[in-house]
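JOB MANIFEST
job_type = single_chain_structure
chain_count = 1
residues = 499
[input]
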Amino acid sequence: MHSSLWLSALLVVPVLGAALAALVRKREGWSYAVAVTASSVEFVLTIIIAFLYNSHVAHAQTFDFATRHVLSAPFGLAYDVAIDGISLFLVVLTSFVVLVALLGARDRRREPAFVSWLLLLTALTMGSFIAHDVLEFFIFFELTLVPSYFIIAQWGGAERVKAALKFFIYTFSASAFLLIGILYLGFSHQHQTQGALTFAYGALAQTQMTHSTAIWLFIAFAIAFAAKSPIWPLHTWSPITYAEAPTAGSIEFSALLAKLGSYGLLRFAVGLFPLALPDMRPVVLTLAVIGILYGSAVACVSRDLKRFVAYSSLAQMGFITLGVMTGSKIAMVGAVLLMFNHGVITAGFFLIIGFIEQRRASIQIRDLNGLQGPAPVMAGLFTVVMLASIGLPGLSGFVSEYLILIGTFATHTWWSVVATLGVVGAALYLLWAYQRVFHGEAVGANATMADVNSKERWVLVPVVVLIVALGVFPKPVLDRISPSVQQLIEHVAPSGVSK
């Protein structure tokens, strides 16, 4: 296959899978089989791309598999895709997460429609990560709202309609600022060059602008990305959305859609507006630290497990934002790695929570106690995921957070010191949650709860393997991320980013 077709295949496979799943909807189980097959093919494609990309790293060719076709020159529309070390592992994460969600969180209610929406969401998420044109990114970024809305509204819990509306309106409104900023930037570039209208990332990155213009554009972009991540205080949609969405939806939203925000902040807000960084960096760093502390505090008093993970994710997204904005190469590499690791960890959390919900019909912490006795394997798997989220050395979460904190300490010491309290907070709320759910004497329905079966164990095996492997030997991943981060740093270095 020609190199330019690999990324296009990542868009085509899930779309075709969604269409075929809808076509065979009248045959019991066929739609699910089609979805698993399509997601398996997607995962294999991303692994092949990861290996092929590796062969170019030594030549410092950070953007690869690039292809661009102008669709409408007067409107600046183009199909422009490429990946680098920053987006590469988010592409792999996307294919991995949807496959795990399908295998471990199957929802048989109107299954053909459900898996079709899930595959469509995968295609749009993938498109966002591989888009190398800013307007094209916005189109993919915004269209993810459609399948997300229907997944929540049709397969969610008791308050699904409220959750779906809040999620849609909140993120759609924030994205309006992004569209305005993109259009302004594109027309400014056209005016300066006296050429055709274009939204190509490389072209817009060279656009000249005043300091105040850069600040306003950064704010417009950052609002949209902060709402999607989420970053405090634009996070209020996430607890109810994660709680009310079906398990597969919660996995997709926390592991993938949240990363669209942090990825967009790094790639576009930081990459396109270096002039704004000296003024905006302290503001965003402060919001990130508040999010870390706030998420940790509220997680301690959360009443159900999904909301607990939602606030835990808010704290983790705070660490990612800290790494993205701090200005240190070490911290930025750590932030990209944490995007991947957090996606794997939260997928593990929501899978186990889904298993509990299937057995107990409740994820209220007050209804759960002593599960370690009847379900020791489940307790062991939860422990591994929990310790990775805490940042135990030897597991994936430690490497990411360590790089972020030492990088931040070198450039913004006090923010790093305060953020370290979030590591302590994570140990507090995660261990306390584990104690309330798994320790003690199981009574009633808890005493007879079945442990994870063979299929469920095998679904969690790759999650545990990734957590351990990236905790022990992260170098291959870091070696692929670093050149792209270095290239970004060289672009924004005049703003005071440390090399």
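[summary]
The chain has a mean pLDDT of 87.
Residues 160-193 form the longest helix (34 residues).
exit_status = 0
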